[in-house]
Amino acid sequence: RDKQKIISKIKTLKSNEKTVDSSKKKSESVSTNLKSNQNKIWKKILWALISLQTLQVMSNQPLMPLYYIDHLIAEGGTAKVYWGIDRRSGFPVAIKELKIRHFKNTIIREKFKSVEAQLYLYMQHPNIPRLVDFIDMHEQEKLFIIMEFVQGKSLEQYIYGEIGLIPEEKALPMFIDILDTVAYLHNNGVLHLDIKSNNIMLQ
Q: Which of 2, 42, 79, 152 could be joined to 203 by an S-S link, Cβ 3.0–4.6 Å?
């Protein structure tokens, strides 16, 4: 509950800052007051983020300098995925913590960074979440991929929680979208290796 209040406060403060910027354009005569107001707003944002970090430490979640991790979304065999906030923009992100046992070998780790992460960086497709950042916290033995957060539900949740068997008129457009995305990956030298309903998001 405390987290949600703080996150809501940050969004409100961000909105107030935009209002201040808009007002600044209308009149230069009050620029000093506006600058003062902006400073106050950013101080409040800073304190809100510090409060979030304190909650993060208490919940025993990974600490990152540029991102706040709020809660675990999902966990698979190779990674954990968290819902988080980009501290610079205030936008939500998906933070994927790769399970280090798969990357303890230095050659595999470097290959992932130089090949796979670089390939992902240049992926430009409407059905592929955008890569925001890649973080190697070597001393803590942690690897993170920061991705655009996709709001929605998995195909698995849609099937088992809502619709059951999908009628052909709905399934066909979905399947065409999936095939289009897979074809794009293959044309760019990427194999997914784990295509399943739980890994397909519906917006």
A: 152
Read off the DSSP letter of residue 109.
H
pLDDT in tens, 135-150: 887 777 788 889 999 8
Token pair for 57: 């430490």
* Angle, helix 2-26 to helix 31-58, in steps of 10 degrees: 160
Active site residues: 194
Q: Which two tokens stand for residue 13?
A: 């403060």
189 burial level (CB within 10 Å; 0-12, 13-18, 19+): exposed
Q: Largest alpha-carbon pair distance within the chain?
A: 64
Q: Indicate the DSSP class of residue 163.
A: I
Q: What DSSP state is assigned to residue 44?
A: H
Residue 60 tokens read as: 């025993």
pTM (global) more than 0.70: no
* Per-residue model confidence as pLDDT tens digits over 82-102: 999 998 888 999 998 887 776
> What does the block give as tokens for 31?
């620029």
> Is the separation of the CB atoms in 138 and 130 below 8 Å?
no
